[in-house]
Specification:
By secondary structure, the protein is mainly beta. The protein has one domain. It contains 1 helix and 10 strands, in the order E-E-E-E-E-E-E-E-E-H-E. An 8-stranded mixed β-barrel has the order 1-2-3-7-6-5-4-10. The longest helix has 12 residues. It starts with a strand and ends with a strand.
Length: 145
């Protein structure tokens, strides 16, 4: 089985930066990190739908079709008062509405002086490959909020 952990470590006015790890649990009880990347989320605003990052905690993670994105995406399930919190492609905090964007580097891609994530599309593809063949998992979001 595989599980996902996000460690939030940089809390800015408009966004939260962190690191995502896919951990594979082996039948002998051992585990290892098989994938890692950077994350970008909206700043904490009381877990309010579409304007806040998801509250920290343990959640179910399900691979399902998203009509909005017209593709299979991992969705975080069981977040109080929230639905449709996905892990998807985005480079800027302005492209996410309470979801989690992934990329391979925190960097500045535009002139707003706010960190972004680069290579989001390629990183999401690698995340999906790392999670294969699972269609259900868990996610542990660690940090403030």
């Amino acid at each position: 089985m595989k599980r996902v952990v996000i460690y939030r470590n940089n809390y800015l006015e408009k966004e939260v930066l962190g690191h995502l790890f896919v951990i594979e649990e082996n039948s002998d009880g051992s585990s290892k990190v098989i994938f890692e990347c950077k994350t970008l989320e909206l700043a904490w605003k009381n877990n309010d739908n579409n304007i806040s990052c998801v509250s920290t905690g343990f959640y179910e993670l399900t691979l399902e079709y998203s009509p909005k994105f017209d593709r299979l995406l991992w969705e975080i399930k069981g977040v109080p008062d929230r639905k449709e919190a996905k892990i998807h492609v985005a480079n800027y905090y302005t492209q996410i509405e309470g979801c989690i964007a992934v990329g391979d580097l925190h960097t500045h891609l535009n002139d707003d002086n706010i960190p972004d994530v680069q290579n989001s599309r390629k990183t999401l593809k690698k995340f999906h490959q790392a999670m294969y063949p699972e269609n259900k998992s868990t996610i542990h979001i660690v940090g403030k909020a």
